[in-house]
Write a structure and sequence with these properties.
Layout (H helix, E strand, L loop, with lengths): L10 H9 L27 H74 L5 H18 L1 E4 L11 E9 L6 E7 L1 E4 L2 E4 L1 E8 L1
Parallel strand pairs: 2-6
Antiparallel strand pairs: 1-4, 3-6, 4-5
Helix pairs in contact: 2-3
């Protein structure tokens, strides 16, 4: 006897319906699983990421080079300032040294004048004369101080100060007739001009 269900269908059809799944089975995912960050589907390293890190490194190197260049420039400027300071200090020290010498010489000029007058009158002899001679030699050797002015020298307004003037037919140019007070100079620098009497052509 054939079994029938309430719908009148045979058992085989009922079995097929019972065995059929409620929903179709999902298709198998054939795609590869996601790879770790920094790698693509083939397992290769992310080149873009590497370039980004390289660019950052190059930028840092450029910044360090710029900083080093600035530091070198600062060091150079500091060295130039120091060299300028040393040069200025030496120049100022030299000026002060020469000013000190000039002051001492100016103080001694009256002593040298008295010694020159005493020598002209024959009064500067013996030990006193030796002391004065040594003083004059020391001033000339160590400081370049020289006495100048002799009768017959051609008159030079840069080296002579005329205190009197006469005329004569015996001279062709203006010249020193006699020395009132000798002059002194250091090299080309006139410490004190010679005070003289001048004779001029008629």
């Amino acid at each position: 006897m054939t079994n029938e269900n309430f719908g009148g269908q045979p058992d085989e059809q009922m079995n097929d319906v019972a065995q059929a799944p409620d929903q179709a089975a999902p298709e198998q995912d054939t795609t590869q699983p996601a790879t770790d960050a920094g790698e693509d589907a083939t397992g290769q390293t992310d080149v873009v990421g590497e370039l980004s890190e390289l660019d950052q490194a190059l930028l840092r190197v450029a910044e360090l080079e710029e900083e080093l260049a600035r530091r070198k420039a600062d060091l150079y400027n500091l060295g130039q300032e120091y060299n300028g300071y040393v040069k200025r200090s030496k120049a100022e020290a030299r000026v002060q040294y020469e000013a000190g010498i000039t002051k001492v010489i100016d103080t001694l000029l009256s002593v040298l004048d008295d010694a020159a007058l005493a020598r002209q009158h024959g009064d500067l002899t013996g030990p006193a004369g030796a002391v004065v001679d040594k003083l004059e030699q020391t001033l000339q050797t160590n400081f370049g101080l020289e006495r100048y002015g002799e009768p017959g020298d051609e008159f030079d307004p840069e080296h002579h100060e005329a205190l009197m003037n006469t005329t004569s037919a015996d001279v062709e140019v203006q010249q020193v007739a006699h020395i009132i007070q000798p002059g002194y100079k250091q090299g080309e620098k006139v410490v004190r001009p010679a005070r003289v009497g001048v004779v001029s052509p008629e």
